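Lab notebook: predicted structure, single chain.

Context: the supervisor wants predicted structures on file for every construct in the current expression panel, including those that have not yet been purified. This is the next one on the list. No modifications to the sequence; it matches the entry in the shared construct table.
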Amino acid sequence: MCKVLRILVLAQTLGVCAVALTACGQKGPLVHPQDPLSVDRATLLQTLIPRFQSEAPQPQTPPATKP
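Prediction complete. Output recorded below exactly as produced.
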């Protein structure tokens, strides 16, 4: 009985390792989009938590002065 259990555990471990190593068939490096259309897209965190505000400082325009 012990050998059967050991064989089953080994087979499951090898199966999990094989699935993990296939990486869902994705090939090539992860590339973040750099085109101008992707500038205004939400990040993953903004998608998951809509009320999340970016901590990046917003550029401030100087107050208008009268001539």
